[in-house]
Amino acid sequence: MDWGEINLKNEVILEAVGLKKYFPIETGFLKKSIEYVHAIDTVNIKVNKGEALGIVGESGCGKSTLAQVLVNIYSPTEGKIFFEGVDVSPKAARNSLGFKKNIQMVFQDPFWSLNPRKMVRDIIMEPLKVHRIVEYECFDTEIERLMDMVGIGKKRMFSYPHEFSGGERQRIAIARALAARPKLVILDEPTSSIDTLSQAEILNLLIELRDEFNLSYILISHDLSVVHFLSDRLAVMYLGKIVEIGKTETVFNLMYHPYTQALMKAIPLISSNGTVQNIEALEGNVPSAINPPKGCRFHTRCYKCQEICRNKEPELREFEDGHFAACHFANQS
Ligand SMILES: Nc1ncnc2c1ncn2[C@@H]1O[C@H](COP(=O)(O)OP(=O)(O)O)[C@@H](O)[C@H]1O
Ligand code: SF4
Ligand SMILES: [Mg+2]
């Protein structure tokens, strides 16, 4: 498979090719030397129209950086981004209103992402104005429609973010994202800061909205049960790289990469008496992204590690149709 090829027949909405984001940091005596955090390091992804791509991995593996490069909060250090087949890698293309309208982001904590000094009406109105979605006279009708869509009573449009619960604030953030009528929504840990019941309601709402508006999603979470619920395909990230990607069910069933296996084993289980327990916590810490391990980045924590793993970086290889894993011993037990 050629990652660089744009396949319009499959209706690819977004494609990233060889994407890198390195953050420079000053280190050493008098902060004279510059080192780089390799936050994302040669990532290739495709998202099809109407599809939800889940991205999972431990904290610090580069999920949020990837999202922020894709929505143009950060410029990539290297690599190309295509939206509906058009190269939007040049800054001017990513800064265009058309691109900004089509790709919207919902952040982890709606408390920080919603301006506390603005009423909900003004928060949702902003994208309507910027992207000229409806005429001025229709703003309130459109805001009411959006609030209704996410299950918040329209009378509350004159309230401020602090007057809502965490789950309700996240619904408002979703309404604001959808106000622009985007084609792709990137959700970065959308349910991590809200209670379990609201989490389930938000995930169901996202499914309904996707079906109604043929939306595509990139859903980022450290929580495998969240991505399992919503994603058609799943990418597993480790230390800035995708180590396994494929259909969600296939990744869950086959778990070719030892890191995917370790993540699965660390899923919290609910026992019969209602207590939550991990069957096996992931051992060791994620190594520094400033000096990532040579060879396979997972070798310092991998039970299968052999000499080759310390020296040669494994490439993403295709095992089944569209199922890739980056491990020298992926299909060997
Ligand atoms: N603005 C930044 N400057 C320097 N390093 C950063 C910055 N943002 C993120 N990082 C680093 O990049 C790596 C990936 O972070 P992040 O994308 O937030 O991971 P995740 O979302 O998976 O937890 C981490 O090592 C983090 O410390
Ligand atoms: S390449 Fe080696 S160290 Fe890396 S995941 Fe595979 S077996 Fe483990
Ligand atoms: Mg994050």
Key structural traits:
single chain; 333 residues; alpha/beta; 8-stranded mixed sheet; 4-stranded antiparallel sheet; 12 helices; 14 strands; 31% helix; 26% strand; globular; disordered N terminus; binds adenosine-5'-diphosphate; binds iron/sulfur cluster; binds magnesium ion
Structure description:
The structure is a single chain. By secondary structure, the protein is α/β, with parallel strands linked by helices. Helices cover 31% and strands 26% of the residues. The chain contains 12 helices and 14 strands. It has an 8-stranded mixed sheet with strand order 6-7-8-3-9-10-14-13, sandwiched between helices. It has a 4-stranded antiparallel sheet with strand order 2-1-4-5. The chain has a two-stranded antiparallel sheet with strand order 11-12. The protein is globular. The site of adenosine-5'-diphosphate has 13 residues, from strand 1, strand 2 and helix 1.
Order of helices and strands: EEEHEEHHEHHHHEHEHEEHHEEHEE
The gyration radius over C-alpha positions equals 21 Å
Overall mean pLDDT stands at: 90
Largest sheet composition: 8 strands, mixed
The CA-CA distance between the termini, in Å, is 25 Å
Give the percentage of residues in beta strands: 25-35%
Brief digest:
It contains twelve helices and 14 strands. It has helices spanning 63-70, 91-95, 97-102, 110-113, 120-130, 139-149, 166-179, 196-213, 224-230, 248-254, 258-265, 307-311, and strands at 12-27, 33-48, 52-56, 78-83, 86-87, 103-106, 184-188, 216-221, 233-238, 241-247, 268-270, 276-278, 317-320, 323-325.
